[in-house]
Design brief:
One of its GO terms (molecular function) is hydrolase activity. Keywords: Hydrolase. The protein contains six helices and seven strands; from the N terminus they run E-E-H-E-H-H-E-H-E-E-H-E-H. With 224 residues, it is an alpha/beta fold. It has a seven-stranded mixed beta sheet, with helices on both faces. Helix 5 links the parallel strand 6 and strand 7.
Protein backbone atom coordinates (compact mmCIF):
# COMPACT_ATOMS: atom_id res chain seq x y z
CA UNK A 1 0.00 0.00 0.00
CA UNK A 2 1.23 3.48 -0.88
CA UNK A 3 -0.25 6.27 1.24
CA UNK A 4 0.35 10.00 1.31
CA UNK A 5 1.65 11.74 4.43
CA UNK A 6 1.26 15.49 4.97
CA UNK A 7 3.04 17.19 7.87
CA UNK A 8 2.27 20.52 9.56
CA UNK A 9 4.89 23.18 10.11
CA UNK A 10 7.18 22.82 13.09
CA UNK A 11 8.85 19.88 14.78
CA UNK A 12 6.56 19.15 17.73
CA UNK A 13 4.05 16.34 18.07
CA UNK A 14 0.59 17.12 16.74
CA UNK A 15 -2.84 15.49 16.64
CA UNK A 16 -3.31 13.34 13.57
CA UNK A 17 -5.99 12.39 11.06
CA UNK A 18 -6.27 9.10 9.18
CA UNK A 19 -7.92 9.93 5.84
CA UNK A 20 -9.69 7.28 3.75
CA UNK A 21 -10.58 7.56 0.05
CA UNK A 22 -13.63 6.57 -1.97
CA UNK A 23 -13.75 3.06 -3.42
CA UNK A 24 -11.88 4.17 -6.52
CA UNK A 25 -8.79 4.62 -4.37
CA UNK A 26 -6.28 7.23 -3.34
CA UNK A 27 -6.15 10.21 -5.70
CA UNK A 28 -5.03 13.83 -5.79
CA UNK A 29 -8.36 14.76 -4.17
CA UNK A 30 -7.36 12.99 -0.94
CA UNK A 31 -3.79 14.23 -1.20
CA UNK A 32 -5.06 17.82 -1.35
CA UNK A 33 -7.29 17.17 1.66
CA UNK A 34 -4.34 15.79 3.58
CA UNK A 35 -2.37 18.92 2.70
CA UNK A 36 -5.29 21.09 3.87
CA UNK A 37 -5.38 19.23 7.19
CA UNK A 38 -1.63 19.73 7.59
CA UNK A 39 -2.12 23.46 7.05
CA UNK A 40 -4.60 23.35 9.94
CA UNK A 41 -1.92 21.80 12.14
CA UNK A 42 -2.65 18.08 11.83
CA UNK A 43 -0.43 15.21 10.78
CA UNK A 44 -2.50 13.63 7.99
CA UNK A 45 -2.12 10.24 6.33
CA UNK A 46 -4.29 9.53 3.29
CA UNK A 47 -4.27 5.75 3.05
CA UNK A 48 -4.35 3.43 0.07
CA UNK A 49 -6.98 0.79 -0.74
CA UNK A 50 -5.66 -0.87 -3.87
CA UNK A 51 -1.90 -1.21 -3.70
CA UNK A 52 -1.13 2.06 -5.41
CA UNK A 53 -3.83 1.71 -8.07
CA UNK A 54 -6.73 4.02 -8.84
CA UNK A 55 -9.73 2.06 -10.15
CA UNK A 56 -11.49 4.27 -12.67
CA UNK A 57 -13.51 1.36 -14.09
CA UNK A 58 -16.70 1.10 -11.97
CA UNK A 59 -16.97 -2.66 -12.48
CA UNK A 60 -13.39 -3.26 -11.40
CA UNK A 61 -13.93 -1.00 -8.40
CA UNK A 62 -17.06 -2.89 -7.34
CA UNK A 63 -15.39 -6.25 -7.83
CA UNK A 64 -12.73 -5.24 -5.33
CA UNK A 65 -14.72 -3.11 -2.88
CA UNK A 66 -17.85 -5.20 -2.40
CA UNK A 67 -15.99 -8.22 -0.98
CA UNK A 68 -13.95 -5.84 1.16
CA UNK A 69 -17.07 -4.19 2.59
CA UNK A 70 -18.53 -7.62 3.32
CA UNK A 71 -15.47 -8.64 5.35
CA UNK A 72 -15.10 -6.45 8.45
CA UNK A 73 -11.89 -8.17 9.55
CA UNK A 74 -10.20 -7.42 6.24
CA UNK A 75 -11.52 -3.86 6.29
CA UNK A 76 -10.11 -3.38 9.77
CA UNK A 77 -6.81 -4.88 8.70
CA UNK A 78 -6.36 -2.23 6.03
CA UNK A 79 -7.28 0.52 8.47
CA UNK A 80 -5.09 -0.84 11.24
CA UNK A 81 -2.08 -1.12 8.93
CA UNK A 82 -2.48 2.53 7.96
CA UNK A 83 -3.04 3.52 11.57
CA UNK A 84 0.17 1.74 12.59
CA UNK A 85 2.10 3.81 10.05
CA UNK A 86 0.49 7.03 11.29
CA UNK A 87 1.20 6.21 14.93
CA UNK A 88 4.88 5.56 14.26
CA UNK A 89 5.36 8.92 12.52
CA UNK A 90 7.48 10.97 14.98
CA UNK A 91 5.29 14.06 14.56
CA UNK A 92 2.12 12.14 15.54
CA UNK A 93 0.68 12.27 19.03
CA UNK A 94 -0.44 8.61 19.15
CA UNK A 95 -3.11 9.35 21.76
CA UNK A 96 -4.82 12.02 19.63
CA UNK A 97 -5.97 10.56 16.31
CA UNK A 98 -9.22 10.91 14.36
CA UNK A 99 -10.41 8.93 11.32
CA UNK A 100 -12.12 10.62 8.38
CA UNK A 101 -13.27 8.64 5.36
CA UNK A 102 -15.28 8.86 2.17
CA UNK A 103 -17.27 5.90 0.81
CA UNK A 104 -15.20 2.77 1.32
CA UNK A 105 -12.68 4.82 3.29
CA UNK A 106 -15.50 5.90 5.59
CA UNK A 107 -16.45 2.27 6.13
CA UNK A 108 -12.84 1.59 7.15
CA UNK A 109 -13.02 4.42 9.68
CA UNK A 110 -16.23 3.05 11.15
CA UNK A 111 -14.85 -0.49 11.39
CA UNK A 112 -11.85 0.80 13.32
CA UNK A 113 -14.31 2.33 15.76
CA UNK A 114 -16.31 -0.90 16.00
CA UNK A 115 -13.04 -2.68 16.72
CA UNK A 116 -12.53 -0.52 19.79
CA UNK A 117 -9.63 1.53 18.45
CA UNK A 118 -8.84 4.61 20.53
CA UNK A 119 -9.95 7.44 18.24
CA UNK A 120 -11.00 10.97 19.17
CA UNK A 121 -13.56 11.29 16.35
CA UNK A 122 -14.88 9.44 13.31
CA UNK A 123 -16.32 11.13 10.22
CA UNK A 124 -17.80 9.22 7.31
CA UNK A 125 -19.21 10.69 4.09
CA UNK A 126 -21.27 8.39 1.84
CA UNK A 127 -20.13 5.44 3.96
CA UNK A 128 -23.10 4.66 6.22
CA UNK A 129 -22.23 0.99 6.50
CA UNK A 130 -23.74 -1.04 9.33
CA UNK A 131 -21.56 -3.47 11.25
CA UNK A 132 -21.87 -6.80 12.99
CA UNK A 133 -24.51 -6.86 15.76
CA UNK A 134 -23.43 -5.22 18.98
CA UNK A 135 -19.98 -4.12 17.87
CA UNK A 136 -20.91 -0.44 17.59
CA UNK A 137 -20.92 -0.41 21.39
CA UNK A 138 -17.11 -0.50 21.17
CA UNK A 139 -17.02 2.94 19.52
CA UNK A 140 -15.34 5.28 21.99
CA UNK A 141 -15.72 8.66 20.30
CA UNK A 142 -18.25 10.91 18.55
CA UNK A 143 -19.35 9.82 15.06
CA UNK A 144 -20.33 12.34 12.38
CA UNK A 145 -21.90 11.13 9.12
CA UNK A 146 -22.79 13.01 5.96
CA UNK A 147 -24.89 11.82 3.02
CA UNK A 148 -26.72 13.26 0.02
CA UNK A 149 -30.50 13.18 0.15
CA UNK A 150 -30.62 11.76 -3.38
CA UNK A 151 -27.88 9.17 -2.90
CA UNK A 152 -29.32 5.89 -4.28
CA UNK A 153 -26.44 3.86 -2.81
CA UNK A 154 -26.87 5.18 0.73
CA UNK A 155 -30.67 5.24 0.42
CA UNK A 156 -33.06 6.13 3.28
CA UNK A 157 -33.31 2.51 4.45
CA UNK A 158 -29.52 2.34 4.71
CA UNK A 159 -29.41 5.62 6.59
CA UNK A 160 -32.10 4.39 8.98
CA UNK A 161 -30.23 1.15 9.67
CA UNK A 162 -27.03 3.05 10.38
CA UNK A 163 -28.64 5.55 12.74
CA UNK A 164 -30.54 2.76 14.53
CA UNK A 165 -27.25 0.93 15.08
CA UNK A 166 -25.56 4.05 16.45
CA UNK A 167 -28.50 4.90 18.71
CA UNK A 168 -28.83 1.36 20.08
CA UNK A 169 -25.13 1.41 20.98
CA UNK A 170 -25.45 4.79 22.75
CA UNK A 171 -22.89 6.33 20.42
CA UNK A 172 -22.57 10.13 20.33
CA UNK A 173 -23.64 10.41 16.69
CA UNK A 174 -24.74 13.03 14.17
CA UNK A 175 -26.10 12.65 10.65
CA UNK A 176 -26.22 15.51 8.15
CA UNK A 177 -28.33 15.01 5.03
CA UNK A 178 -27.34 17.41 2.24
CA UNK A 179 -30.42 18.28 0.21
CA UNK A 180 -30.32 17.43 -3.49
CA UNK A 181 -26.88 15.80 -3.36
CA UNK A 182 -26.00 12.47 -4.97
CA UNK A 183 -23.45 9.84 -3.97
CA UNK A 184 -19.85 11.11 -3.85
CA UNK A 185 -21.18 14.68 -3.93
CA UNK A 186 -17.93 15.80 -2.30
CA UNK A 187 -15.70 14.52 -5.12
CA UNK A 188 -14.93 16.82 -8.06
CA UNK A 189 -16.08 15.56 -11.46
CA UNK A 190 -13.78 12.91 -12.95
CA UNK A 191 -12.97 12.15 -16.58
CA UNK A 192 -13.98 8.49 -16.48
CA UNK A 193 -17.27 6.61 -16.29
CA UNK A 194 -18.99 6.63 -12.91
CA UNK A 195 -21.86 4.66 -11.44
CA UNK A 196 -25.41 5.99 -11.83
CA UNK A 197 -26.38 8.25 -8.95
CA UNK A 198 -22.90 9.73 -8.57
CA UNK A 199 -22.41 13.46 -8.98
CA UNK A 200 -20.48 16.46 -7.69
CA UNK A 201 -22.23 19.18 -5.69
CA UNK A 202 -19.70 21.97 -5.11
CA UNK A 203 -21.70 23.87 -2.49
CA UNK A 204 -22.43 20.82 -0.36
CA UNK A 205 -18.88 19.55 -0.84
CA UNK A 206 -17.62 22.74 0.79
CA UNK A 207 -20.22 22.49 3.55
CA UNK A 208 -19.29 18.88 4.33
CA UNK A 209 -15.62 19.83 4.55
CA UNK A 210 -16.45 22.68 6.93
CA UNK A 211 -18.52 20.26 9.05
CA UNK A 212 -15.60 17.83 9.26
CA UNK A 213 -13.15 20.58 10.19
CA UNK A 214 -15.59 21.71 12.90
CA UNK A 215 -15.77 18.14 14.25
CA UNK A 216 -11.99 18.00 14.42
CA UNK A 217 -11.83 21.39 16.15
CA UNK A 218 -14.32 20.12 18.74
CA UNK A 219 -12.87 16.66 19.38
CA UNK A 220 -9.23 17.03 18.35
CA UNK A 221 -8.20 20.67 18.78
CA UNK A 222 -4.77 21.79 17.66
CA UNK A 223 -2.99 23.61 20.47
CA UNK A 224 0.17 25.65 20.00
Amino acid sequence: MIGYLALPAGVDRRPAVLLGPEGTGLSDVERRRADALAELGYVALAFDLHGGRYLGDPEEMLARCMPLLADPDRTRGIGQAALDVLRTEPRTDPDRIAAVGYGTGGAVALELGRDGVNLRAIATVNGLITGRPGEAARIRCPVWAGVGSEDPIMAPAQRDAFTAEMQAASVDWRLVVYGGALHAFHHPTVDHTVRPGVGYHPRHAQRAWHDIVALLAECLPVTD
